[in-house]
């Protein structure tokens, strides 16, 4: 890769770093929009934010200042899902485009987490108290009303009952052994996700798509962003090291893996990875 693209790539990553540097000033929507710049450097993340703001203001102008929260939610759902036509891309659910906000806005199709990002921004603009929920298997939204909390599927706008949520959660509980005496309350799975957690989940979706497709170049771009979002999650740095190895960037792979083993010497995979580190160091010396 020549110097100019590398310099541009570093500049994009540095811009992203400023957006996610600290929790108090975490600029979620712009950071999420900027992820698509790895695929298309011409994407203007601030223009994407402005487009979402415009959609929000179009709805806000329709609402009376004294409109009740329940009325605001009902109008929002009609506006978002019926008028604007947002919904799940069920025909191509695992396309990376579903994680690129500018394309979600253009096609009105996405996955739960990207639909939720747009929905949450519009909802807050019209005065609703909403939060994202990093529910296992399917990102959700909750809205606080005077009557209580409403859990909403951002793919459809449907409100979900506790029975429906328990049903959706059952496969996860069974897989993790969280049944019977080990069952934990549903409420623990309905906690609000922080902006950092939301962006990390969005990037992990892309990570899995590119890993499944063995697209190591795109996977590295996602991983570069992910380690900035969750710098204390050393498993992500380990995974980045292994991506470096797939790209035959031996020195970077060895350095990143050595750092992981230094920070997590008791990890379950530490023994096997020490052998891998020796091989990476040998390859680095040869190249």
Main features:
287 residues, mainly alpha, 12 helices, 2 domains, 7% strand, 5 strands, 3-stranded antiparallel beta sheet, two-stranded parallel ribbon, globular
Q: What does this protein look like?
A:
With about 290 residues, the chain is mostly helical. The chain folds into two domains: about 5-215; about 230-285, no CATH class. It contains twelve helices and five strands. The strands form two sheets. The protein has a three-stranded antiparallel β-sheet. Strands 1-2 form a two-stranded parallel ribbon. It is globular, with a radius of gyration of 21 Å.
Could you say which overall geometry the principal axes of the C-alpha atoms support?
Answer: globular
How many individual β-strands?
5
- The low-pLDDT segments are none
Number of helical elements: 12
Order of helices and strands: HHHHEHEHEEEHHHHHH
- Helix content range: 55-70%
Strand content: 5-15%
Q: What structural class results from the helix and strand content?
A: mainly alpha
- How many strands, which pairing sense, and closed or not: the largest β-sheet? 3 strands, antiparallel
Q: How many structural domains?
A: 2
Residue-averaged pLDDT: 94
């Amino acid at each position: 890769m020549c110097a100019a693209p590398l310099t541009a790539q570093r500049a994009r990553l540095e811009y992203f770093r400023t957006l996610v540097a600290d929790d108090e000033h975490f600029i979620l929507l712009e950071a999420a929009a900027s992820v698509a710049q790895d695929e298309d450097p011409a994407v203007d993340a601030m223009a994407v934010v402005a487009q979402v703001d415009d959609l929000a203001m179009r709805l806000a102008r329709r609402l009376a200042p004294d409109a009740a929260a329940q009325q605001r939610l009902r109008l929002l759902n009609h506006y978002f899902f019926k008028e604007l036509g947002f919904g799940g891309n069920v025909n191509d659910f695992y396309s990376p485009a579903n994680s690129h906000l500018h394309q979600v806005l253009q096609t009105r199709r996405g996955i739960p987490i990207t639909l939720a990002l747009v929905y949450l921004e519009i909802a807050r603009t019209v005065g609703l108290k909403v939060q994202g929920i990093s529910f296992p298997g399917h990102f959700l939204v909750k809205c606080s009303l005077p009557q209580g909390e409403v859990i909403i599927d951002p793919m459809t706008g449907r409100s979900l009952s506790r029975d429906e949520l328990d049903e959706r959660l059952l496969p996860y509980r069974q897989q993790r052994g969280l049944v019977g005496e080990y069952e934990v309350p549903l409420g623990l799975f309905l906690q609000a996700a922080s902006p950092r957690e939301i962006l990390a989940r969005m990037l992990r979706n892309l990570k899995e798509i590119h890993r499944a497709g063995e697209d190591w170049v795109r996977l590295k771009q996602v991983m570069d962003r992910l380690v900035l979002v969750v710098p204390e999650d050393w498993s992500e740095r380990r995974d980045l090291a292994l991506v470096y190895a797939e790209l035959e960037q031996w020195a970077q792979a060895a350095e990143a893996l050595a750092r992981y083993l230094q920070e997590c010497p008791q990890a379950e995979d530490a023994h096997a990875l020490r052998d891998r580190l020796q091989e990476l160091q040998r390859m680095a010396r040869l190249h």
